[in-house]
Amino acid sequence: MQKYDIGLIGLAVMGQNLVLNMESKGYSVAAYNRTGKRTEEFIEGKARDKNIKGCYSLKELVDLLSQPRKVMLMVKAGSPVDDNIEDLIPLLEPGDLIIDGGNSLYTDTIRREKYLKDKGILYIGTGVSGGEEGALLGPAIMPGGSKEAYKLVSDIFEKISARAEDGKPCVSHIGEDGAGHFVKMVHNGIEYGDMQLIGEAVWALKSALGYDAEKIAGIMTEWNKPSDILSSYLIEITGEGLKEKEKSSNSYLVDITADITRMKGTGTWTVASALELLVPIPTIASAVFSREMSQDKDIRLAVSEKLKINPESLRLDAKEFVKVAHDALYIAKISSYAQGFALMEAASAKYGWDLDMGGIAAGWRGGCIIRAGFLSRITEEYEKNKDLPNLMAAPAFSQFINKNLSSLERFIEVAHKAGVPTLAMSCAYDYILQIASPVMVSAQVAAQQRDFFGAHGYFKLEDKSPVIETKNDSSYQEYHTEWMEEGRPEKKL
Q1: DSSP string over 22-70
Q2: Which of 127, 183, 257, 273 sees the fewest Cβ atoms within 10 Å?
Q3: Distance of alpha carbon 426 from its chain centroid, rounded?
Q4: What is the mean pLDDT of residues 276-294?
Q5: Across residues 443-454, what is the average pLDDT?
Q6: CA–CA separation, 140 vs 170, rounded Å?
Q7: Strand order in the sheet with 122-129
């Protein structure tokens, strides 16, 4: 009986395309879907005459695999993953490997890896980015688990992954237990930010300059040239999408698309994780909130009847404003990525993952949704200094921001006058202002307020350098003012 190199469970489009990708790279694959009809359709259709075996039970699939067995799950996050794990446990042996290739929450991955480790079964939580096309032609892959587990599947992953321009595979061992799924989650949060920033740029070009979709598509095409700092997959598909017309009406498709953007959860997970780890990611959060507001269509329609926003008539140099929008988008993008990388740094410290920030950026250069030439610059900057306090402190980015921050200011000003909200752009700008502030007056005021109403205490800058190594630096002397007593005596706590 033939033994197969790997088994895959879950034959939705992503699962099917991964199977076809693996087979095209010389691997034999056993495939299973809970609904047998889908398995049959796949085997009789796209998988016909290929080294792919359709299975109609988990036992059949496991029995067909060479040892140590490798089983990849491509099922919906949550209970379906747990259910499949429980069904597989009695069929597997110590040293076998389960790979979760879905968008699982990283804390679930940490739990599952520990649970299976106690049973002698290896587990890898693996982020896979690139959508249906990436799964078939080469995705960016973010595996997290033990090095022992990764060795079992590293050859397959490297062969099926995308290749960056320098030919390197867009995959590497991210770190222990939930590291892979955490990095994939942050990737998706950054993706939310990118999409929102581009959307705000398009909206401003439309409202401030009166450009139609085709005109803006042409601008996006210019911005996507390989030599341009904004060149990326998302800029590319924005241009392609904007020039698309509906055949029946000859209208631009974007103009008749409902202004409602749905979500699958990874963006909200990113924001929740940032709150738990005490890391500010305002641009990414604003993108999530903007999507939520898009879904409140009935509320927006009702409020728009009561609140009348009257845009100003603007006299702009169109060529100049397009350049302003270009540079503003790049600066906002740097700010957004800096927030995402700061979140990964915090998680790495908390969970002991020792994440390689430059390596992560390198792995995103091909296959994934946020692939862009810009990522090579991030890799280069982390190679020069892996201890950057923040991505924006890297010379390649700080110099551009110092020289062109006025473009982001100008973009926000013009957009607001044109009646265009800039949640993400404004948050990116304010993040730069705040992180570059050696003294935050608003924080001084809040510290005093807290001590006044709750006797929570405060620190003094004079006691130590204003740089605090950790968020809970006990080396600061704490003070309290007796606000209700005459003369207001001050005491050390």
Answers
A1: HHHTT--EEEE-SSHHHHHHHHHTTTTTSSEEEESSHHHHHHTBPSSPE
A2: 257
A3: 19
A4: 96
A5: 94
A6: 5
A7: 52-55, 29-32, 6-9, 70-73, 97-100, 122-129, 140-145
CB 218 within 8 A of CB 394: no
462: confidence class by pLDDT, cuts 50, 70, 90 = confident
Per-residue pLDDT band for 467 (boundaries 50, 70, 90) equals very low
Q: Cis omega (within 30 of 0) on the bond before 438? A: no
The three-point CA angle 21-25-26 to 5° equals 120
> Residues 168-188: pLDDT tens digits?
999 999 999 999 999 999 999
Q: Smallest Cα–Cα separation from 335: which of 221, 434, 422, 414?
A: 434
Q: Which two tokens stand for residue 429?
A: 């700008």
Residue 250's φ and ψ, nearest 5 degrees, are 65, 15
Q: Which residues are catalytic?
A: 184, 191
Who's near 466: CB < 8 A, 6+ residues apart?
438, 439
Token pair listed for 65: 């695999």
d(CA 336, CA 346): 16
Q: List Cβ neighbours of 75 (8 Å cut-off, separation of 6 or more).
A: 9, 10, 81, 84, 102
Residue 213 has pLDDT above 70, yes or no: yes
Dihedral angle, C-alpha 10, 11, 17, 21, nearest 10 °: 60
Which run of H or E residues covers position 191?
helix 179-209
Amino acid, res. 80: P
Q: How far is it, in rounded angstroms, from Cα 385 to Cα 326?
A: 28
- The distance from CA 168 to its chain's CA centroid, rounded to whole angstroms, is 21
DSSP 244: -
Pairwise CA distance, residues 156 & 197, whole Å: 36
For every residue of 397-433, DSSP letters joined together read: HHHHHHHHHHHHHHHHHHHHHTT---HHHHHHHHHHH
Rounded to whole angstroms, what are the CA distances from 189 to 167, 184, 209, 343, 379? 27, 9, 30, 11, 19
Query: pLDDT tens across 246-280, in order?
Result: 888 989 999 999 999 988 889 999 999 999 999 99
**How far is residue 463's CA from residue 485's CA, in Å, rounded to a whole number?**
25
Report how far residue 467's alpha carbon sits from residue 104's, in angstroms, rounded to the nearest whole number: 37
What pTM was estimated for this model as a whole? 0.94
